[in-house]
Amino acid sequence: MNPLVNFVVHKLLNPRKKWYPFISVFYLTYECNFRCPFCSDGSGTPYYRLPEKILPASEVIKLLKIIRTKCDYIVLTGGEPLRHPEFSSIMEAVVQMKFREVVLTTNGYDVDKHFSAIAGAVTSLVFSLNSLDPERSDRFFGLKSHDKGATLRKILGNIDLAEKHSNKNFQIHISSVVGPSNIEDLYKVYEFARKRDFIFAACPQLVGVKPHSGLSGKDDFRAFYTFLLEEKQKGNKVYGTTPYLEYMRDLRKFRCYPFTMLVVSPTGDVYYPCLEIGHLAGNLLKTQNLHKIRQNGERLFGPQPDCDNRCQSACALGFSMLFQHPSVIFEDIWFTARRFLHRLHD
Ligand code: SF4
Ligand code: SF4
After folding, report:
1. How confident is the prediction for the chain on average, in pLDDT?
2. Ligand 2 centroid – CA 320 distance (Å)
3. Which of 2-6, 218-222, 256-260, 278-282 shows the lowest per-residue confidence on average (mean pLDDT)?
């Protein structure tokens, strides 16, 4: 469905029994080569501890083709999606599916191994980066300190590789988790992204679905988001609109629209109303009718709950802000135009 029509459908009609997602988030695998101490799914379990069930490439491709009939936009994530043993074959198939946007999130470590498959398929390549300090990075990756920064150097080398790729038709994003122990590091990470013209995104550390207790109301946490808001006003590439960043800073409750997304597990499972709450409502390889999956979820688990203050993540909060403050789209267009005009004068 055309995104504008889809927006009107969601905004005005709020079809209770229908499901027309804007975007799909597909977890290729929950497996990961890192052990970040803040890694957490909606129940608080680190992704790498979830059962390691994955589909072979042929089944993943079948699943992606089904997803393609529902959505124009896809986020491929994990765990670490590059750990899927047939990752490159899957990316080659993704190219043929002609999604409008393909976003790949990665910890960056194995990007060099799969670079040509990645470069040919994605429109946004999102690297996680939480510090530029080698020893602290080791800790954030959950690795032993005898590594002495080799992991960070490899990731930075892969970011260089992506940046220098000649026929680049994707945008690089740097994505950081804002936790109680790395806020000071993030100013440097932001500067690293800004100097290279990458988009910088920052989400608060969640424990399960709730913001880490060491963040709420803390001056350094609020100051970092205030800094990002100021950078955004200057026209720099900070991900998210002004209300989005303000809600993140204040860790404010927002109205969630989980049916704007189609979140799919490595084996094709779909949850109601969202992966975080985790009620299994169907499997896309068995039932392709999303309206039926939603109706099944509602029948089994009741109406969508009015959640408390939680899930300040890019997807959940991002869509909420779009629906609550649609005019912010024009604000983003204005910031982009201003950046363009500044460049002309540089
Ligand atoms: S890189 Fe991501 S998936 Fe892997 S341990 Fe860290 S937070 Fe978890
Ligand atoms: S806020 Fe949204 S994403 Fe989070 S648990 Fe509630 S419905 Fe799910």
Report:
1. 89
2. 11
3. 2-6
The full set of domains in the chain, from first to last, is 3-345 (3.20.20.70)
What's the pLDDT tens digit per position in 11-69? 666 666 789 898 999 999 999 999 999 999 999 999 999 987 999 999 999 999 999 99
User: Of ligand 2's atoms, which has the minimum distance to the CA of residue 310?
Assistant: 1
Considering every ligand atom, which ligand is closest to the CA of 126? Answer: 1
* Helix or strand (DSSP H, E) at 77: strand 73-78
H or E segment and range at residue 95: helix 87-97
Strand pairing of 210-211 and 206-207? antiparallel
Distance CA 49, CA 67 (A): 26
Helix (H, G, I), strand (E, B) or coil at 210: strand
- Judge if the beta carbon of residue 198 lies within 6 A of ligand 1: no
> For residue 298, how far is its CA from the centre of ligand 2 (angstroms)?
15
pLDDT for residue 52? 78
Which of 205, 286, 189, 274 is CA-nearest to residue 238? 189
Which residue in the block uniquely carries the two structure tokens 């300190």?
A: 145
Percent of the chain at pLDDT exceeding 90: 73
Question: What SS3 class is residue 129?
Answer: coil
Tokens linked to 60: 């993943």
Q: Are 137 and 158 in contact (CB under 8 A)?
A: no
- CA–CA separation, 128 vs 131, rounded Å? 10
Q: Quick one: pLDDT at residue 334?
A: 57
Is the CB–ligand 2 distance for residue 274 below 6 Å? yes
* Ligand 1 pocket member 224 (CB < 6 A): no
At 232, the amino acid letter reads K
Among the listed residues 212, 119, 121, the one whose alpha carbon sits nearest the alpha carbon of residue 167: 119
Secondary structure (3-state) at 202: strand
Measured from the CA of 177, which atom of ligand 1 is nearest? Answer: 7
CA torsion, points 24, 82, 171, 267, in degrees to nearest 10?
0
